[in-house]
């Protein structure tokens, strides 16, 4: 395939997919900070009171952290927080506002999309929110109308294409 034959990239923020029964959209304006090390200290400094969520736990619209590993999490905030990158007091912060994307899948068909994309036992839970969804490593959380996927931005187009065919 030649470069000129590629379909144009989708919007980075806004509606990505609209199908009967579900829609997938990338909300605008979210802040994302990757933290490593002492998560409790990092959250106290960056997003006081923010809960740390595991696999498919309900995510509030306020600040929250999605655990990736024992000592690593993605802090999601309603707006960028402008944290200074680097190590301090046993933890490290890296601003990844443009490095990660969030896709919210909502509607009556959202559970079906979730079942098609994820083979993990969501009822069993996990302290880590990381899971394979449609072959991509994502952080998975529940929302009132469906679920959210947090993915590294280079995979946004491929994941959107998969959702488009779901």
Automatic annotation (TrEMBL):
This is Sarcosine oxidase subunit gamma. It comes from the Bacteria. It comes from Roseiarcus fermentans.
